[in-house]
Write a structure and sequence with these properties.
Largest sheet: none
Protein name: TRAP transporter large permease protein
Structural class: mainly alpha
InterPro entries: DctM, TRAP_DctM
Distance between the termini: 47 Å
Order of helices and strands: HHHHHHHHHHHHHHHHHHHHH
Radius of gyration: 22 Å
GO cellular component, one term: plasma membrane
Helix content: over 70%
Number of strands: 0
Function: Part of the tripartite ATP-independent periplasmic (TRAP) transport system.
Number of helices: 21
Shape: globular
Family: Belongs to the TRAP transporter large permease family.
Length: 454
């Protein structure tokens, strides 16, 4: 019974989180309780807890994590500057005469916002408020309209600069170092958040193209679901360029500096935060009141992330010292089917946990447990990170508990049935699963560009 204590602890954490208790305090509290049980049962040494101070100090001094508040600041500032609103207005009128043109413009705007903000909830809510009433007014099927908005909003999960990729990159970097040390490799090439950013670019572009092809197919073969608007007047080219250029410049500034090696993700996040502020000033949306609001929002989210980080560090310490790592390692190695079956089971578990846990919780609780074992089995860390990110993105959409569905339900008109939201996301879930299958068959989709630029 004692050998399964780590798994019981994991189960208790998930159960308490489902009851709605704060994540950080749940992780820390349950870990302390099970550490006490382990001490009483003689399977955990009290002095092992001294290592927690080093872990906490390591989190606070981790320069990669400075990118988290900077990217959050950048995203919130862009949201307040109303860049997405102007961009959607102009693109919608530019594409409105074509079948499914409005839906296509929503995907294009969402892609640019994902490449500029990386915050899923904010993108779904913003796009829902701005585009859903217009799509319904123009005769779009509610399911198609809701599915397009939800799927587009979750692109921030995989398209850099994604907060999810920043956190995943830090966790996988530590897991990769640990796995290499366990294998006796002391000079392995480290992976970074920048590697994940670069690795996610090709899969992200492929996913956007799949969305656009699906909507184009709807426009051609089922135009009654997404009718064109012949009364739309395309905006002047100057207006269109004026609305498109700022987010593209910001994307090039942030991602371009990372790809070319001119800046680390942390440095690029600072540049992005400053650029977003300057864009707000240029659009006359900046004020001290607005700045204070952005700083407060950034502080709240950053505090939550780092509190969860500290709680998860205690959880992983207790889990590992109770023998959880050996238990997981033995389970995966005893599986028939080897590495393929191990990865498949992990992906299924993460997908199911995505129904009840947020991506931050899964990143800090589940990934540190399973990643070292999978990496020791020869799985590429960049490929694994991209697969996990897309998997979590899929769980954001999957009924009945997908977080993106809840976000849209909160801002959608009451005339839109919840069943329509659920129905609308199914084709986009299939497209995301198709992308995961493609990545499984051709891992170079995620690894080719990082290896080329190293």
């Amino acid at each position: 019974m004692l050998e399964y204590l780590p798994l019981i602890m994991f189960g208790v954490v998930c159960a308490v989180l489902m009851l709605g208790y704060p994540v950080a305090f749940t992780l820390a509290g349950v870990s302390l309780i099970f550490a006490g049980i382990g001490i009483y049962a003689g399977v955990f040494e009290l002095q092992e807890m001294l290592a927690y101070t080093e872990r906490a100090y390591g989190i606070m001094t981790n320069t990669s994590l400075i990118a988290v508040p900077m990217f959050i600041f950048m995203g919130v500032m862009l949201e307040r500057s109303k860049i997405a609103e102007a961009l959607l207005h102009n693109l919608a009128h530019a594409c409105g005469r074509a079948p499914a043109g409005l839906a296509i413009s929503v995907v294009l705007v969402g892609t640019l916002m994902a490449a500029s903000t990386g915050i899923v909830g904010a993108t779904v809510v913003t796009m829902g408020l701005m585009s859903l009433p217009t799509m319904l007014k123009r005769g779009y099927e509610p399911a198609l309209a809701c599915g397009t908005i939800c799927a587009t909003g979750t692109l921030g999960q995989i398209i850099p600069p994604s907060i999810a990729l920043v956190l995943l990159g830090d966790v996988l970097s530590s897991a990769y170092q640990q796995a290499q040390l366990n294998l006796g490799v002391f000079n392995a090439t480290p992976i970074s958040v920048g590697d994940l950013f670069i690795g996610a670019m090709v899969p992200g572009i492929v996913l956007v193209l799949l969305y656009l092809l699906y909507l184009a197919w709807i426009g051609v073969f089922k135009p009654e679901l997404a009718p064109p608007n012949p009364d739309d007047t395309p905006p002047p080219i100057s207006e269109l360029i004026k609305s498109i250029v700022p987010p593209i410049l910001l994307m090039v500034l942030v991602l371009g500096s990372i790809i070319t090696g001119q800046a680390t993700p942390t440095e690029a996040s600072g540049v992005g935060a400053l650029a977003a502020t300057l864009l707000a000033v240029a659009r006359r949306q900046f004020s001290l009141k607005a700045l204070a609001s952005v700083v407060r929002s950034t502080a709240k989210v950053t505090t939550m992330v780092f509190a969860i980080l500290l709680g998860s560090a205690l959880f992983s310490l207790v889990f590992r010292d109770l023998g959880g790592e050996q238990l997981i390692h033995g389970f995966f190695h005893d599986l028939p089917g080897g590495t393929f079956m191990a990865v498949l089971i992990v992906m299924l578990v993460i997908f199911l946990l995505g129904f009840i846990l947020d991506f931050i919780e899964i990143t800090f609780v589940v990934v540190p447990i399973i990643a070292p074992t999978l990496l020791m089995m020869g799985v590429d860390p960049i490929w694994l990170g991209i697969m996990i990110a897309i998997n979590l993105q899929t769980s954001f959409l999957t009924p009945p508990f997908g977080f993106a569905l809840f976000y849209l339900r909160g801002v959608a008109p009451q005339t839109v049935a919840t069943s329509a939201i659920y129905k609308g996301v199914i084709p986009f879930i299939i497209l995301q699963v198709l992308l995961m299958v493609c990545l499984a068959l051709w891992p170079s989709l995620a690894t080719w560009l990082p290896n080329l630029l190293r």
